[in-house]
Specification:
The structure is a single chain. The chain is mainly beta. It folds into 2 domains: 25-144, Immunoglobulin-like (Sandwich), CATH 2.60.40; 170-399, Jelly Rolls, CATH 2.60.120. The protein is 4% helix and 36% strand. It contains 2 helices and 26 strands. The protein has helices at residues 139-144, 389-399; strands spanning 25-29, 44-49, 52-57, 68-72, 77-79, 99-102, 118-123, 131-138, 173-177, 192-196, 200-204, 207-213, 217-220, 238-246, 262-267, 271-278, 281-288, 297-298, 308-310, 315-322, 326-331, 334-339, 356-358, 361-362, 369-370, 374-383. Strands 9, 11, 12, 14, 20, 21, 22 and 26 form an 8-stranded antiparallel β-sheet that branches. Strands 10, 13, 15, 16, 17, 18, 19 and 23 form an 8-stranded antiparallel β-sheet that branches. A 5-stranded antiparallel β-sheet has the order 1-8-7-4-5. It is globular.
Length: 400
């Protein structure tokens, strides 16, 4: 069988063995939300052969190609119409038996569907959270998931550190960037685009991550949770953290020619996570901004050395913040700092798109990109919940 794409794509000329291949893995069907327009009726079937997977739509819902995404736990994402194995245009309404193939030699998806891979079929509706319609797990991945652990735990992964199928507090996970095979948000739809420089994906001291050399600017796309707003006074607790590795104490490019700092994550109007040079080390800090009202706050005004880490080492950090109430800081799974009288909060900014960046800061000064990170990032996450110490320790253990 030959799959042909539109002229904007190459032609996929090999799909041997897919015609009658049976299911080689585990399929989980997941219903949509109450506001998903009856998406829970949509049905999919999967057929795996060697390192490819056929995804067959069996009807039951009203789906548009550009709103249907295929996502892997390694970070690869493509909409149905982007795959070279389909003939769908962006506005094509899928008909029953519509089929997409992913795997080697498929345009826009050449990664193999190997052991340990999990694939999700996700539907995107403007203004709503993504809805997972179906999940396929390879046999090896399915075995790792059985028996299912209690809610809030994360399944151990293999030596390649693929993201686990069972994710800590998955229901509250807003965004997650593994930085393994791309820059996609594998939990939500806030994907990262490269606006400056050349970040390098690779394995650094046995950890898959993105390497930033002080010239890289990365912008977060405007998704359904477009502001990633977690610091409003009525929003409840939230958590943000990941693995970080600094190559040197200072970052690169400062607008005032002062010693530049490292930006890890920046929501320009609401909150910032940074690394500040302190002698030959780096001090992490969380700042809540009052640009559009609220009360500003910085952990730097409250701490001494609890958030300071050496360079040239991997460390896991997590901030757990309850706006206008408290902030807790965890380093490598251990609580190092707590402020139970934290007054800071920042109202949600929704009337304009504030620049949200990873590993960098984009502004209106000269230069427009500054305080760029020099180091590595891995498995950056944002939760709309206050993770417990046990949950954070579980994340560190499973991604160490």
């Amino acid at each position: 069988m030959v799959y042909k794409g539109w002229m904007r794509r190459r032609v996929l000329t090999s799909a041997a063995g897919l015609g009658t291949a049976g299911l080689s893995g585990c399929l989980r069907m997941i219903g949509g939300s109450e506001n998903s327009g009856g998406l829970e009726a949509a049905n999919f079937r999967f057929e795996r052969s060697d390192e490819r997977l056929r995804i067959i739509y069996e009807g039951g819902g009203s789906l548009v190609a550009q709103q249907l995404e295929i996502r892997s736990n390694a970070g690869t994402v493509a909409s149905w119409n982007q795959l070279g194995s389909t003939q769908a245009q962006a506005d094509t309404a899928l008909s029953s038996s519509a089929t997409a193939t992913i795997g080697p030699a498929v345009v826009n998806w050449e990664q193999p569907v190997a052991a340990g891979t999990a694939i999700r079929v996700v539907y995107m509706i403007d203004g709503e959270s993504p809805t997972t319609l179906a999940t396929f797990e390879t046999e090896n991945q399915a075995r790792q998931s059985q028996p299912r652990q209690q809610s809030g735990t994360e399944t151990e992964t293999d030596a390649t550190r693929q993201p686990a199928t069972e994710t800590v507090a998955e229901e509250a996970l807003v965004s997650r960037w593994p930085f393994q095979s791309g820059f996609s948000d594998v939990a939500g739809d806030n994907d990262i685009s490269i606006e400056r420089g050349n970040p390098e994906l690779g394995t650094y001291q046995e950890r898959e991550s993105v390497s930033l050399d002080g010239s890289v600017g990365m912008m977060i796309a405007r998704g359904a949770n477009e502001e990633l707003s977690i610091m409003a006074s009525n929003s409840g607790p939230a958590s943000i953290g990941g693995w970080v590795y600094f190559d040197q104490p200072s970052g690169m490019r400062h607008q005032n020619n002062d010693q530049p700092i490292h930006h890890i994550f920046r929501n320009d109007a609401e909150y910032v996570v940074q690394g500040v040079p302190v002698d030959d080390q780096v001090r992490l800090r969380l700042s809540i901004r009052s640009q559009r009202g609220g009360v500003s706050y910085s952990t730097e005004d409250q701490t001494t050395g609890e958030m300071t880490i050496p360079i040239n080492e991997w460390h896991h950090f997590m901030y757990v913040v309850d706006p206008q109430s408290s902030v807790r800081f965890f380093l490598d799974g251990e609580q190092r700092f707590v402020d139970e009288t934290m007054p800071g909060y920042s109202p949600n900014v929704s009337d304009y798109w504030s620049h949200e960046t990873v590993g960098s800061w984009y502004g209106t000064r000269n230069p427009d990109w500054y305080n760029l990170m020099v180091g590595k990032l891995a498995d950056l996450r944002i939760y709309q919940t206050g993770l417990t110490g046990d949950e954070i320790e579980q994340i560190v253990t499973n991604t160490r």
